[in-house]
Amino acid sequence: MQQEVLLAMLAKEPSHGYELRARLRQALGPLGEAMNAGQIYVTLTRLEKAGMVASEQAAGLPDRPDRKVYALTPEGQQRVAGWLADMTWAGPAPAEFHLKLVAAAAARLADPLTIVDAQRREILRRLRDAQRAALDEPDHSTAGLLLEGLVLRLQADLHWLEACERHWAGRP
Amino acid sequence: MTRPPQDHGLLQARDLVKSYGRETGLVRAVDGVDLDVAAGETVAVMGPSGCGKSTLLHLLGGLDRPTRGEVLLSGRRVDRLGEKALARMRRDAIGFVFQSFHLMDEPEGPGAGLLLEGIVLRLQADLRWLEACERAWTGRKE
What we know:
The structure holds two protein chains of two kinds. By secondary structure, chain A is mainly alpha-helical. Chain A is built from seven helices and three strands, in the order αβααββαααα. Chain B is an alpha+beta fold. Chain B contains three helices and four strands. A four-stranded antiparallel beta sheet of chain B has the order 2-1-3-4, covered by helices on one side. Chain B is globular, with a radius of gyration of 17 Å. The interface of A and B includes residues 131, 135, 153 and 157 of A.
C-alpha cells in the first residue's frame, strides 16, 4: 500500500488500521479485493518509524491485533501536502510489452504477432470483467468511477495492440 | 430502431458547443454545430488537424459531453444520459473506430513511434477519465 495514500486518509481523522482498510475497500470496490490487511499494517509501521504517524493504544479492546489508533504528525501532514501537489502520472508508457516484442523479434524467440494476439485476449477478458463490475456498481459510486478509468485505459491499450499488429505484420 | 420524430434523421446535433478552459484560456473546440444524419447515410467530416473533428465525433458518440446543445439518437437525448445509460448506448447502438496514428518515421530506433502511439492513446484515455472524475466530483464531497 502506498504510504501517501494512508497518510492522506489519516488527514480526515485518527483511525484504526481496520477503519482505513474499510475506507479503502469502499473506494476501490472490486479492484480492492486483492488488498490484504497485512499490507496496511506493514506500511503503518514503517510510517510510524519514519515519524509520519504517531500511534496510541486504544482503551477497551485489549485482544484486538489492531488496537492502535494512528494519527498524522506534522511531518506526515507535510508529506500529504507534497503528494497532493505532485503531478506524477503512473504508467503512461506500455514500454515493457513493447520491449518484449522488440526482444522476441530480434532473437527470434517468438512471433510478435502471436504475443500480440495472446495479450489482446487477456485485455479483452479484463475489459469484460471491468465492464461487468462497473454495471454492478450503484450510481455515483467512487469504485464505479475507478472502474470507468480502468475500462478507458484497457480500451486505449486494445487500440494500441491493433497498431502493434499492423507494425509487426509489416516487418517479418 | 424506431423512426425519430419529424423524420429529421437518426443522429442529430443542435447548436453543439464544447469548450475547454475559462476566460482568456477558453478554447471552443466545437462551436455551434447543427447536424442531421439519416439512417443509411454516410457523412464525411473534413478539416485540418485540431479543428475539432474528433471532439465533434466524441460528442456524437456519447464519449464526451457537450458544454451546450443537444445530441439526439433516434430522437432521444444522448447528452443528458447518465453514465450507465451512456455505457449501454455505446455498447448497443454506437460503433466507434478510432483514428490510427501514422508515426512510422522512426529516427529513434525500431518501433519508437509505435511506443509513442501507445503513450498518446493511454493519455487520451486518462484525460477522458479526468473529465469523468470532474463531473463525478462536481458538487460532491465524498
